[in-house]
Amino acid sequence: MRKKRTIIANPLVSNTFHITTRCVRKNFLLDDGKPIKRPFKSRRQVILKRLQTLASAYAIDILRVSFMDNHAHFEVRNRPDLVERMSDEEVARRHLIIHPGYCQANADAKNKSPDKPTVEDAKKLAQDKKKIAKIRQNLSSISRFMQSFNFYTSRYFNIVDGMSGAFWESRYKLKALLDELSIFLCALYIDLNPIRAGIALTPETSRFTSAYYQIEAERMLALNPDLDPSSLPNAFLAPVCISSDESRRWTTSVSARASDFGFTAMTSEEYLILLDMMGRILHKKQKGAIPADLPPIFRRLNLTWERVLHLVSAYEELFCFFVGSTESLTRKSAELGGRRLRCPAADMGLLP
């Protein structure tokens, strides 16, 4: 049974989510082998560019992403706490990035450059207090975020392909990630998507994933440590590591993302090492030895390599609307009035 999105993703409450949106009828409409006559050389560059724009405007942290030939995965965290700290003019400015007063998809697809909204436009909008109050809520809304993403990309590709009708399936899949375990599993699942699909052998060759952008950014910084952080390919992504500096949860070092709030206690390097090890185990063509000493995060989450491998490999089948440990699922069930939450992973005893 479908659940109301307001139950799973309340824009007034900060939560982390796994979003999957698929092309209509699962067609390979994002296949880069299809011709495209516009500024972008790759079809997936189009959706990347749109996601980067939205990351700079919405109060939503983009944690992990993966763009495949016929679907896309996002791990995101909405941040109503960030919106509360914004001035009316800042809220107006961000709204005008998303809704500049003309159809951005039309302009981009037809290589047009309409005049952008000005500072004066933002100030004028900020004076409408009733409208600003509604926009504030929209800036941390997952539904509005996906509407902005899907409408733009659908319109853009219909124009360049000379087509009409739906581009994405009408309803994207949404899973609420309830704890550190679920956020960690989802991150691995998303970054390992190309490896699981057999179209890439390693994280560094898994193009159009957050892991790839992360690796590219570190490679660029190794060559030139003085590079502007906003110019790095992972600038729109939230950092991997949760900083001990509490202020980083509400601030950002680059305007390309909502905040510098990470998603795990692991460092960027530790996460990539773990990702590489998991990729070797997942991919049948590669051999990887399971180390005797498990990483600290596994001990903390009470997991084993075998259990993580099962949870990541069958992630979509093992979790439904909510992802988390047994304790988190029980707590969420109580919040919803004691109704039992369907979760095959829990039924099979795979969760700590």
Q: Could you state the oligomeric state of the chains shown?
A: single chain
Order of helices and strands: HEHEEHHHHHHEHHHHHHHEHH
Please, how many helices?
A: 17
* CA gyration radius, whole angstroms: 20 Å
Short structural summary:
By secondary structure, the protein is an alpha+beta fold. The chain contains 17 helices and 5 strands.
Walk me through what this model shows:
The chain is α+β, with helices and mostly antiparallel strands and 352 residues long. It has a single domain (11-86, 139-347), classed as Alpha-Beta Plaits, CATH 3.30.70.1290. Helices cover 45% and strands 9% of the residues. The protein contains 17 helices and 5 strands. A 5-stranded mixed beta sheet has the order 2-3-1-4-5, with helices on both faces. Strand 2 and strand 3 form a beta hairpin. Helix 2 (43-57) runs antiparallel to helix 8, helix 4 crosses helix 6 (119-126) and helix 9 (180-191) packs across helix 14 (305-313). The protein is globular.
For this entry, give a set of tags:
Alpha-Beta Plaits, globular, 352 residues, alpha+beta, five-stranded mixed sheet
Summarize the helices and strands and which ones pair or pack.
Elements: H1 5-8, E1 16-22, H2 43-57, E2 60-67, E3 71-78, H3 80-84, H4 88-98, H5 104-109, H6 119-126, H7 129-138, H8 142-161, E4 173-177, H9 180-191, H10 193-196, H11 210-223, H12 268-282, H13 296-301, H14 305-313, H15 315-318, E5 322-323, H16 326-335, H17 344-347
Parallel strand pairs: 4-5
Antiparallel strand pairs: 1-3, 1-4, 2-3
